[in-house]
Amino acid sequence: YRLFIIPGMSHCQGGAAATSFGQSLDAPAVHQDREHDVRLALEAWVERGIAPAALKSEAGTKRTVIRPLR
After folding, report:
1. How does pLDDT run across 34-46, given as a tens digit for each residue?
2. Which residue from 46, 51, 50, 43 is spatially nearest to 70, judged by alpha carbons?
């Protein structure tokens, strides 16, 4: 089991952090790959055994924030 915490994120989406990483239709992933989309990351982990090391998320600006998953 793993617990993924996103500092600054409100419940499910929004907040002060970069929180758009494909978790809902209102918060689509920046790119459609497992580094940016949490659904694709989970599919790769469950179906192919490739666990995510980090997820890249977007805050609605041109910046990308990378947070390591621990």
Report:
1. 888 888 888 999 9
2. 51
